[in-house]
Structures are given as structure tokens and as C-alpha cells.
Write a structure and sequence with these properties.
By secondary structure, the protein is of the alpha/beta class. It contains 16 helices and 20 strands. It folds into 3 domains: 89 residues, NAD(P)-binding Rossmann-like Domain (Rossmann fold); 193 residues, Mur-like, catalytic domain (UDP-N-acetylmuramoyl-L-alanine:D-glutamate ligase), CATH 3.40.1190.10; 131 residues, Alpha-Beta Complex (Protein-Tyrosine Phosphatase, Chain A). A 6-stranded parallel beta sheet has the order 7-8-6-9-10-11. Strands 15-16-20-17-18-19 form a 6-stranded mixed beta sheet. The N and C termini lie far apart (55 Å).
Length: 439
């Protein structure tokens, strides 16, 4: 399928680099294009493999009907001119995970995790628990490691655990999991998909090619998740259900108490939902819950997700840079009683901040940053919330340092993507932590 082909890779980053190396031994003519300069060492490595790199803002000028495949980086919008041109030539548009899927050995168990929020924490908990149970598990996908990088290390009998974003799902065709987890759905990435309906249809692709032999783990309390999956052929299992739920500091599976939340570090309803996902999966795999309990007694959470940074002069600082939509910011706000200095903002993606309204009483002041700061200032003024606007995070933190008092909370929970100023949300969170730790 991927031999003796002419291939254009649109966007380099980790995924383009790794899929190019994966395909290079199969007598393919490969060109990678990107708008930005790339690491010279990597470019030289690719050139030695016979792969060309071309920097250009107009990659569509490189594409003609002689190409067999376009491999699109997930960050590239689906209506990019190069993608549109590929469709007009009937050139298949895929991504690196779709490509790598065809190189996987048979007889492995593929577990895919997606959702608007909670997928990274859920994926991490699953990975740590399967490792604790001494199972052969490989981790990749949106969580940081392209599948193309690890595919040749995967053996029959392995568990392949993948966090899969909507930006990856959109270019899936043959890719299929054995077990798919959908944590929840809410409107996000609407600029990428054009509408919430398109976003939901894309998320549904995680159940592609499922039969009754395959498992779907779903959030019964999330209407959109349930409504979207009424017609999938998977065997459906639910959390937040009459059998698997959280109540009175206890998590129940099959109506039996499994875990007291006082015994674990993670707090918050959103984290208990992630734990429910984990436990339902362990039941499917017939793995003793004791391994999950061992992990949960030590697990402090995912970096950049309501991550405690430090307390200084009675003020506590939290890094929630992974909050890239307002629903995620709501989750963070619900984790605190009040006195919050909220850093909000980033890339303009038509996100609706009105959903924050029920939680605004917890906020002392909003610090609006990034591309969307003017709209956030208007939002705050409309709701009589004190607000200052700054272009950069550093400027907001300088102001915060002079405004906080003991028992206040400083929360970076932007409710926005970071791409207006950063390559990834991790960079934004790292900058926040660096500045705060140097106060």
C-alpha cells in the first residue's frame, strides 16, 4: 500500500518526520513541506534517506496529479488549499497514524481514547495501570509519541494504547481499535471543523469498523456522547451509569464499592470520571482493580492539568495550560472555592465563554491574554468582573504579583488554544511555571 509511491507530507513536526522515516525503505519518492524552518540535523538525516524538504507558504504549488498520497499533519486545517487540491485530484488524504496502522502486527489489542476533555489523564492512568499489572503495553498518539515512531517495536500480544484527537481522527479511513473510549463531548475546535456537528461526526470515527466484538466505553451522563453513538455496532459499556458511578466519596463498579476517594491524591468530579473509565476498561480486560488502586495512591495528575506549582506568601499557583476550551476551564473553576485570579485567553477560535457565567462568582479578577484578549475584556465587563488585558502571559503575571493577597488562587486556565503565541500548550504552561517559580 505504501510502496513505490509519490508522497507529499504536509507539515513536518514530530509526525511528519517519523512517518517519512517509516516510509523511506519502501522505494517511495517523499517530499516534506512546512512553512517554518526545521531542525537542521533532522533535515540532513531525511536527505540522507532520499527525502526532500521544501520550506514554503504555498505547498499547493508542489502538488499535482502525479502524487499518490497526501499525508497531512493534524494541525493543518482540513480546508487548507493543498488539501482541497488533493481532493480535486482524488489523491487520498491521510495522517501518520493512519499510515502506521497498516504496519502493525496482527493479534494486538488497540485501545483508543478520545473526548473533548479528560483524554490525557484517562490515557495516562490506563498506561500506568497496565504497566503495574506487568502487561506488554505501548503508548503513543496525541499524548506525545507518533505511532510511526513506535510501530516497529510493537509485537503480537501487545496492548497498544493511543490518545487520539479529533485532528487525527478526521483523516482516518482504515484505522480501527478494539476498544474505544469517548470521555465526553462539548463544542470545541469549531474553527477547525466548521461546526459542532462536523466535530461530533469526526469524533465518531473512533468507532470506525467496529462490530459487536469491539467495545465502546461511554459517558452516560453526557448527552452528546450517547446521542452520537446510538447506531454504532460496538458493544457499549457506560460509566456515570446506574451501575458504575461516584457517590459520597466512593466509586462504584457494578454497584459495588471499589475505591474511597479519600485514599487517593486526585480530586474533583472530572478526575473521578476518568477513574471510572479506567475501572470499566479493567473489567473488560479482566485485570484486578488492585493495580489501579496502587497507581492512584501515587498519581498526582497530568502535567499542565490543574497542576499545583507553588504557594508563595499564602497565594497558591496552578498551571492548567491544557485547558484549550471553556468547558475545561469550568472543570478547573469547579475545583476551587473562590478567590481566583484567572488568566484566560489565547488563540481566537470562536469559543463561547458565556458557559463560564455560573462560575464567575468564584473569580476575583480576569487577566485576558493573547489574540482573544479584547473580546474577553468585553465579556468580563458585561458580567461586572474586574479585568485587565495584556498581550503576553509575562505581563499578566507581573500585574498579578501586585494584586494578590493571602489565600488567593492564581489559575492559568486559558480556555483557548496556545497557537497564537506558542507551538504547543506545554510551552505556555512551562513559561507560567518558570515565571512563578522565579517570583
Amino acid at each position: 500500500m505504501y510502496e513505490n509511491k509519490k508522497i507529499l507530507i504536509l507539515g513536518m513536526a514530530k509526525s511528519g518526520y517519523e512517518v517519512a522515516k517509516l516510509l523511506s525503505p519502501y522505494h517511495n519518492e517523499i517530499i516534506i513541506t512546512d512553512m517554518k524552518d526545521q531542525d537542521k540535523t533532522k533535515i540532513e538525516e531525511l536527505q540522507q534517506l532520499g527525502i526532500s524538504f521544501i520550506k514554503t507558504n504555498e505547498p499547493e504549488t508542489l502538488l499535482d496529479n502525479t502524487f499518490d498520497i497526501l499525508i497531512k499533519n493534524p494541525a493543518v486545517f482540513p480546508f487548507n488549499p493543498c488539501v482541497t487540491l488533493a481532493h480535486s485530484y482524488n489523491i487520498p488524504v491521510v495522517n501518520e497514524m493512519e499510515v502506521a496502522f497498516h504496519f502493525l502486527p496482527k493479534n494486538i489489542t488497540i485501545i483508543g481514547v478520545t473526548g473533548s476533555n479528560g483524554k490525557t489523564t484517562t490515557t495516562t492512568l490506563i498506561y500506568e495501570t497496565l504497566k503495574k499489572a506487568n502487561l506488554p503495553v505501548k503508548l503513543g498518539g496525541n499524548i506525545g509519541t507518533p505511532l510511526s515512531k513506535i510501530v516497529q517495536d510493537i509485537k503480537e500480544g501487545d496492548y497498544l494504547l493511543l490518545e487520539i484527537s479529533d485532528h487525527q481522527l478526521i483523516d482516518f479511513h482504515d484505522f480501527k481499535t478494539n476498544i474505544s473510549i469517548l470521555t465526553n463531548l462539548c463544542p470545541t475546535h469549531l474553527d477547525y471543523h466548521g461546526s459542532y456537528e462536523n466535530y461530533k461526526k469526526t469524533k465518531k470515527k473512533i468507532f470506525n469498523h467496529h462490530t459487536s466484538k469491539d467495545i465502546a466505553i461511554l459517558n452516560e451522563s453526557n448527552y452528546d456522547s450517547c446521542n452520537l453513538t446510538t447506531d454504532i455496532k460496538s458493544t457499549k459499556l457506560y460509566f456515570n451509569s446506574k451501575s458504575n458511578y461516584f457517590k459520597d466519596n466512593t466509586i462504584y463498579i457494578d454497584n459495588k464499592p471499589v475505591l474511597n476517594t479519600n485514599d487517593i491524591i486526585l480530586k474533583g468530579t472530572h478526575n473521578y470520571e476518568n477513574i471510572l473509565c479506567l475501572l470499566v476498561l479493567l473489567k473488560v480486560l479482566n485485570i484486578d482493580f488492585k493495580y489501579a488502586l496502587e497507581v492512584l495512591k501515587e498519581f498526582k495528575g497530568v502535567e499542565h492539568r490543574i497542576e499545583f506549582v507553588r504557594t508563595l506568601n499564602g497565594v497558591s499557583y496552578y498551571n492548567d495550560s491544557k485547558s484549550t476550551n471553556p468547558t475545561s476551564t469550568i472543570t478547573a473553576l469547579k475545583s476551587f472555592d473562590g478567590n481566583i485570579h484567572l488568566i484566560l485567553g489565547g488563540m481566537e477560535r470562536s469559543q463561547d465563554f458565556e458557559d463560564l457565567t455560573p462560575y464567575l462568582s468564584k473569580i476575583k479578577k480576569i487577566y485576558a491574554i493573547g489574540e482573544i484578549r479584547d473580546r474577553l475584556l468585553t465579556f468580563a465587563n458585561n458580567h461586572n468582573i474586574p479585568c485587565e488585558k495584556y498581550e503576553f502571559l509575562k505581563e499578566a503575571l507581573e500585574s498579578i504579583k501586585n494584586n494578590v493577597t493571602s489565600n488567593d488562587i492564581v489559575l492559568l486556565s486559558p480556555g483557548s488554544a496556545s497557537w497564537d503565541q506558542y507551538q504547543k500548550f506545554e510551552d505556555r504552561g512551562d513559561e507560567f511555571k518558570q515565571i512563578v517559580n522565579n517570583f
